[in-house]
Amino acid sequence: MLKQFIYKTIIIIFISTALCVSIFQFYFPSKFLLLYGFLPLVFGIINIIIFKFLVNAGDSTLLKFSNRYLLCTTVKLLGSIFFILGFLIFNKEHAIPFLSTFLIVYLVFLTQEIVGILNFFKKKSKSESSESKT
After folding, report:
1. How far is the CA of 130 from the CAs of 86, 123, 125, in angstroms?
2. Can you spell out the DSSP letters for the chain?
3. How far is CA 57 from CA 12, 29, 37, 54, in A?
4. Which of 128 and 47 is assigned the larger pLDDT?
């Protein structure tokens, strides 16, 4: 399950990086920053770490999983806010392109994280129901 998630994450990293770089290079070359190409990589790595952390809690109680999920979401959100604020303090002229790129990449990887966790629980519930039948 983890290998499949990592594979999908790598594909999303390549596609979103190519889109970020090509859109800015062709349409907004004066607003391009190399950072835009690294945002998908950073979020991809964070997603893999979070998914592994949550899958390890998947065998325990729902309360433990919920606590881990809330912890991961809070840390990711607060880290993102601090990163955004730090960037905006030092680079105000690129605020709008940075914020729009950051938000799009954040939402893409958030969607991938949620779908991955839901698929994990679907497969887990299928395996538990097949084990109970035997």
Report:
1. 50, 11, 9
2. -HHHHHHHHHHHHHHHHHHHHHHHHHH-GGG--THHHHHHHHHHHHHHHHHHHHHHHTTS-HHHHHHHHHHHHHHHHHHHHHHHHHHHHH-GGGHHHHHHHHHHHHHHHHHHHHHHHHHHHHHHHHHHHHHHH-
3. 25, 44, 32, 5
4. 47
Average pLDDT (80-102) is 91
- Amino acid sitting at position 84: I
Task: Please give the residue that has the higher pLDDT: either 134 or 79.
Answer: 79
pLDDT mean over 27-37: 81
Q: Given phi > 0 = left and psi -120 to 50 = alpha, else beta, which region is 33?
A: beta
Taking the CA atoms of the chain, what radius of gyration do you get in angstroms? 18
Average pLDDT over residues 66-90: 92
Residue with tokens 């893999």: 48
